[in-house]
């Protein structure tokens, strides 16, 4: 490989890390790429350098097979497409892998086809919901990456007080769509946590003291099994599998819909309190005191220590599941010098108030 080609290839691969995705052209199977920096013309599929970058021509062919088998409602993306980078992106940069291709199934039937092709060829694959996993390889791969982005349904059913939730969402999206109905579901506590991994891993939410873990509020799963069979799993149809999915992560198949119990949702009380590192002992003592003495299931806190710029930032997210908290509920925290305030607000507003975005791609 000459140095000019090596530069061109590395330039494209490093673009996502510099947040300049907008200048990468969108390609399809027949696109000719003309790069003025390289003064070369090549097709993304025909040029022999591309499989070498991707590292596995067999997997590349499987990506093509998937592309040819699925309907127009699903798509396959490759290295030079900005949508590819959106598919493989994770909250933690250490969890992002450069896969040979990313696949966005748009229907359950297409996902079943994809799984049959993957199973037939025994190719490694990864499944990503919101991409909030901090564990490398848990929702990423170097081969076929499946993004559940297009499964983005939120359907409230007032008759039986259930909500159908797709795995391609983050909890902010779910809460926003349910807010007009004055209902919610037991989901994530902070911004940008994905639905799929959270619900398949257990799920501790702001209402867990009242209703249990998130898995305790799931009534049924729509599941594509590893052999590409589509089934509805509940306590009557497949009781053992229903039990296994409650904490079994993605080991039993790919969930395309979670039917959850709808919970009443009023305005809530709470917010984020920020503290100087010098208050660490006072905060630790207050957190332990709250844990031991709080008897109100509507009251919760989330205590977070974050390293920023060589220093440690401390924040307490306080939550009360009603418009006003009883007197003295959080006094043990507000009596310590802090920035921020607790107030009546929407449930969505409180979730979005968490400062987790400042640590994205720092792990």
UniProtKB/TrEMBL annotation:
Q: Which SUPFAM superfamilies match?
A: FAD-binding/transporter-associated domain-like (SSF56176)
Q: Which residues form the signal peptide?
A: 1-20
**Residues covered by the FAD-binding PCMH-type domain:** 93-265
Q: Which InterPro entries match?
A: FAD-bd_PCMH, FAD-bd_PCMH-like_sf, FAD-bd_PCMH_sub2, FAD-linked_Oxidoreductase, Oxid_FAD_bind_N
Q: Which UniProt keywords apply?
A: FAD, Flavoprotein, Oxidoreductase, Signal
GO MF term list: FAD binding; oxidoreductase activity
Organism domain of life: Eukaryota
Q: Which residues cross the membrane?
A: none
Any Pfam family matching the protein: FAD_binding_4
Read off the PANTHER family from this record: BINDING OXIDOREDUCTASE, PUTATIVE (AFU_ORTHOLOGUE AFUA_1G17690)-RELATED, FAD-BINDING PCMH-TYPE DOMAIN-CONTAINING PROTEIN
Which protein family is it in? Belongs to the oxygen-dependent FAD-linked oxidoreductase family.
Q: What is this protein called?
A: FAD-binding PCMH-type domain-containing protein
Taxonomic source organism: Adineta steineri
